[in-house]
Specification:
Elements: H1 2-9, H2 18-45, E1 47-49, E2 55-57, H3 66-76, E3 79-81, H4 87-92, E4 99-107, E5 110-117, E6 122-125, H5 137-151, H6 158-172, E7 192-198, E8 203-208, E9 213-217, H7 226-235, E10 237-239, H8 244-258
Parallel strand pairs: 3-10
Antiparallel strand pairs: 1-2, 4-5, 5-6, 7-8, 8-9
Length: 260
C-alpha cells in the first residue's frame, strides 16, 4: 500500500544541487590531478635510458616493514565481518543519480520520508541508518542541505525530528561551541550494542541499549571519551569486508586513546 501511495505522489524531480555537486566534483578533480602529478613524478624518477635511446621502467614500490604488517594484523582483530546490505536496495540503486527531492508521505502503513532521485528511483525510510548502505558522501551532504532548506522554519516531530537531530550531530557536533555539546555528556553510562561501518558513505554508527544511534563521519574527531573509544575497540567494528578505510579507522581511534 505504501508503494501505491508513493506512486500517486511521485513524479520526476530534476532539481540538482549544482553548488554541492560542482564543489564536490571540483574537489575530486583536484585530487585526481594531484594524484596524476605524483604518478608522473614517480614515472620520471623511475626511468632510465639505455643505449640506443630505449627507456627502461624501474619499479619503485615502497616496501612495507614487518612492523606495518604486524600492526595491520592487530587492527584486524578489532574487525567483525558481517553482512548487512540489502540486495533489493542494491539493485534499485545500482545506477544511482543525485537526490532530487525529499518528501514526507503518509500512507495506511504510517508516515515516511521519501528520497526521490533524478532517475526516478525512490526509497521510503524512517531513520538514517536504513539508507546508509545505499548512500555515498554526496548523498549525505545533499540530504543534510535538503533537510536544512525544507524544514528550517518548520517545527519537526517524530522521525523527521530524529533524522534532523542525527544529521546535525554528525555534521555539526565536531566543532566547538555548538548546541550539541551537552549531547556528549554521561558517556560512562552508554552501553554499546553495535559499532558498524558503512564504507560507501564513510559513516560509522554507535547503537546503544536504549535505542539511541550516533552517526559519525570516519574522518572527523568527535568528543568521545577514551574509555568509550576503548569499549568500541573491545566490542569490534562490524564491516562487510576488510578494507583500508576500516583499518585506518581502527588506527585513528587507537591513536586517540594513546594521546596524553
Amino acid at each position: 500500500m505504501l508503494n501505491q501511495t508513493l506512486s500517486k505522489s511521485h513524479s520526476l524531480f530534476i532539481a540538482e544541487d549544482e553548488r554541492l555537486i560542482k564543489k564536490m566534483n571540483e574537489k575530486g578533480i583536484d585530487s585526481s590531478k594531484n594524484e596524476s602529478v605524483k604518478e608522473e613524478d614517480k614515472e620520471e624518477e623511475g626511468t632510465k635510458k639505455r643505449k640506443g635511446g630505449h627507456i627502461k621502467m624501474i619499479a619503485r614500490k615502497k616496501k612495507r616493514s614487518q612492523s606495518d604488517v604486524d600492526s595491520d594484523d592487530e587492527h584486524k582483530k578489532c574487525l567483525k565481518i558481517v553482512t548487512f546490505e540489502s540486495i533489493l536496495d542494491s539493485e534499485i540503486m545500482e545506477k544511482k543519480s543525485v537526490i532530487a527531492r525529499l518528501n514526507k508521505v503518509s500512507s495506511p502503513d504510517g508516515d515516511y520520508l521519501v528520497i526521490y532521485r533524478a532517475n526516478g528511483n525512490f526509497r521510503a525510510f524512517n531513520y538514517l541508518m536504513e539508507v546508509l548502505h545505499i548512500f555515498d558522501r554526496q548523498d549525505l551532504f545533499h540530504l543534510y542541505d535538503l533537510m536544512r532548506e525544507q524544514y528550517s522554519e518548520v517545527t519537526l516531530d517524530g522521525f523527521a525530528l530524529i533524522l534532523w537531530g542525527d544529521l546535525k550531530i554528525m555534521m555539526e557536533s565536531s566543532t566547538e561551541g555548538n548546541e550539541q555539546s551537552d549531547f556528549w555528556s554521561g558517556q560512562q553510562d552508554w552501553k554499546i550494542v553495535t559499532w558498524r561501518l558503512y564504507e560507501s558513505c564513510g559513516v560509522c554508527i554507535l547503537e546503544f541499549e536504549d535505542g539511541i544511534v550516533i552517526h559519525m563521519l570516519v574522518e572527523r574527531r568527535y568528543p568521545l571519551s577514551k574509555d568509550l573509544l576503548q569499549r568500541m575497540l573491545d566490542l569490534g567494528l562490524e564491516v562487510e569486508r576488510e578494507s583500508f578505510v576500516a583499518l585506518d579507522l581502527i588506527r585513528f581511534i587507537k591513536q586517540q586513546i594513546d594521546e596524553e
